[in-house]
Design a protein that fits this description.
Helix content is 1%, strand content 45%. It is mostly beta strands and 473 residues long. Strands 1, 34, 38, 39 and 42 form a 5-stranded antiparallel β-sheet that branches. Strand 27 (311-318) and strand 28 form a beta hairpin. The radius of gyration is 26 Å and the shape is elongated. The mean pLDDT is 93.
Length: 473
């Protein structure tokens, strides 16, 4: 009989790309509500409201946007066809516009743009004329004379012009405004005889109405145009040199709100996982299959995406439950969070915002609860035979270093038999917890869970001591 030490040197993230016996011991195929910053395993921080007033109404919140102002940022929320604004103070949410219609699947696109010397929030819904909000009141954007009173659904600013698409009568049409200056503004999409270089107009993208435009996103040197089944880009800085190119291959369908631009790379979610466009080509992320099981059967219809710092945040619905997935762009790892509804995501400064089932706008990464709800965290190590299915492994001791406000529940699964233990962590990292274990089998895994929403951190170097013998010994 030999003694074997199984050591987890550092905790990493989800890896569902292959059989569990072949993934690193620091990865996991099943985990929820844990962080692994620095290689330690910590119950995640929660989220706390930045606005104590819940967003009015009872229908799902369809859009959250932060309208940045010189004096104070204004929170914008859209639900049940009503646009609400919150500028702080005791006034709560104020209704600033009512579309008069309600639709759970309605998509709203928001962009901040300058008209004259004023900053405006533009909102497009695809069913009515674009509206604009200056922080005080809402008015209609554009005019029939300026050819800009068209109901579009997708808008973005690129090289000083407003680009718009999603016209139901012309699903392939991409509109562009005049270049602002002198007597011109982005509210005019018509001709400008004095200088064709600054005029507005439109261009058709693709040939078939069955492949409509589903989103436009500006990069530093091109405009990316998503269609239902294809991907195009527009190059150039004026109508005379605008060039439209179709990117090679088919483009997997994405959700309109599950796209974001970060460091001049466009990231977008499909039913198979995370993709990106780096300015040259669109392709699945190389590690996309690390969340393969999460994406199997998942719905991205209502998915949202944002970024903060070096992390992407996106939501999916799987098994009828919301999941928030965080992708670390530096360490190339995925982590999953749940136990709450994700209506929408946003960002202010470097902090991500979330609107959950409480209908309150909260900042992610603050506090020890999900807006008052206890955090239930679980992390399971890969089920493995340690590369030798012929040997029987007998559990002896588990050595833990860490700290926390709550005890750790340790569950062992050996040869199909599960046992549960309770470990009280020391107050500092100086101590080591020795947890006697039992049972034997050929395969094993360990699950770490928090108790009663408590928080704890396991430092790097979790060690499992095992006796190994041949079946005939």
């Amino acid at each position: 009989m030999a003694i074997h030490n199984m050591v987890i040197e550092r905790f990493i993230g989800l890896d569902q790309s292959t059989d569990e016996s072949m993934i690193a011991s620091g990865c996991t195929a099943e985990a929820i509500n844990f962080d692994t910053d620095g290689g330690s395993l910590s119950v995640c921080r929660g989220f706390e409201p930045v606005c104590t007033y819940p967003i009015p109404g009872s229908e799902p919140v369809q859009r959250l946007y932060v309208f940045k102002q010189p004096a104070k940022d204004i929170l914008i929320a859209i639900t049940g066809g009503v646009v609400y604004a919150y500028a702080g103070g005791s006034g709560g949410w104020q209704s600033i516009y009512d579309y008069g219609v309600s639709g759970v699947n309605q998509h709203y696109c928001c962009v901040t743009a300058q008209i004259g010397t004023e900053d405006y929030l533009l909102i497009a819904d695809g069913s009515s004329q674009i509206i604009k909000y200056d922080g005080e009141s809402v008015t209609l954007f554009g005019s029939a004379e300026g050819c800009s009173d068209i109901a579009c659904n997708y808008i973005d600013m690129y090289r000083g012009r407003l680009f718009a698409a999603g016209d139901s009568e012309h699903p392939n049409r991409l509109y562009y405004s005049m270049l602002p200056g002198d007597d011109r503004s982005i509210e005019n999409w018509g001709y400008y005889p004095a200088s064709p270089s600054v005029e507005g107009g439109h261009v058709e993208i693709g040939e078939t109405c069955g492949d409509p435009i589903t989103g436009v996103y500006a990069m530093s040197n091109q405009l990316l145009i998503f269609k239902r089944n294809s991907l195009y880009r527009l190059l150039g800085d004026r109508p005379g040199n605008f060039t439209v190119e179709r990117m090679a291959g088919e483009c997997e369908r994405t959700a309109s709100a599950a796209v974001c631009v970060h460091n001049d790379v466009v990231y977008y979610l499909t039913k198979h996982g995370l993709h990106s466009f780096n300015g040259v080509e669109a392709a699945p992320m190389p590690d996309m299959r690390r969340i393969r099981r999460l994406m199997e059967g998942a719905s991205i219809t209502q998915s949202r995406m944002t970024f903060a710092g070096d992390k992407l945040y996106f939501s999916v619905t799987t098994g009828g439950r919301s999941r928030l997935i965080v992708y670390d762009l530096t360490e190339r790892k995925y982590l999953a969070y749940g136990g709450f509804t994700v209506y929408d995501l946003g960002m202010t400064e470097d902090a991500p915002l979330i609107v959950s089932g409480t209908r309150r706008v909260c900042e992610w990464g603050r506090g020890g609860s999900f807006d008052g709800a206890a955090i239930e965290a679980s992390w399971r190590t890969p089920l493995t035979d340690l590369g030798d299915g012929s040997t029987v492994k007998t559990l002896r001791q588990l050595y833990l270093r860490g700290e926390g406000s709550g005890d750790v529940t340790v569950k062992t699964r050996v040869g199909g038999v599960t046992d549960s233990y309770r470990a009280a962590l020391p107050e500092t990292y100086d101590g080591v917890v020795e947890l006697p274990l039992k049972n034997e089998g050929r395969t094993l895994c360990i699950t770490f869970e928090n108790r009663d929403g408590g928080a704890f951190t396991l430092a790097c170097g979790v060690q499992l001591e095992i006796s190994v013998r041949r079946r005939t010994e």
